[in-house]
Design a protein that fits this description.
The chain has one domain (10-76). With 77 residues, the chain is mostly helical. The protein is 70% helix and 0% strand.
Length: 77
């Protein structure tokens, strides 16, 4: 049976990165604890180093836009 894909919020991603980069927690321990593949972690890290905290804003904006559209649709009913 296939694993279900997990979605992490921007805050969760930053917290996971912080655990490794600031607190020194081993990557293998993080991956086990959060059911995360190391490749995903390194992609998040690269995005964070390139763009800083704004690296994950796109997700939040996209999710907010979808919710606003859903609200508008429900208000029309």
């Amino acid at each position: 049976m296939a694993k279900r894909r997990r979605k992490y919020t921007a805050e969760q991603k930053v917290a996971i990165l912080k655990e490794h980069l600031v607190e020194g927690r081993r990557l293998s321990d993080l991956c086990d604890a959060y059911d995360l593949h190391p490749t995903v972690f390194y992609r998040w890290q690269k995005e964070f180093f390139e763009k800083g905290a704004r690296a994950f804003e796109k997700e939040v904006e996209g999710r907010t836009k979808k919710l606003e559209q859903k609200i508008a649709k429900l208000e029309k009913k």
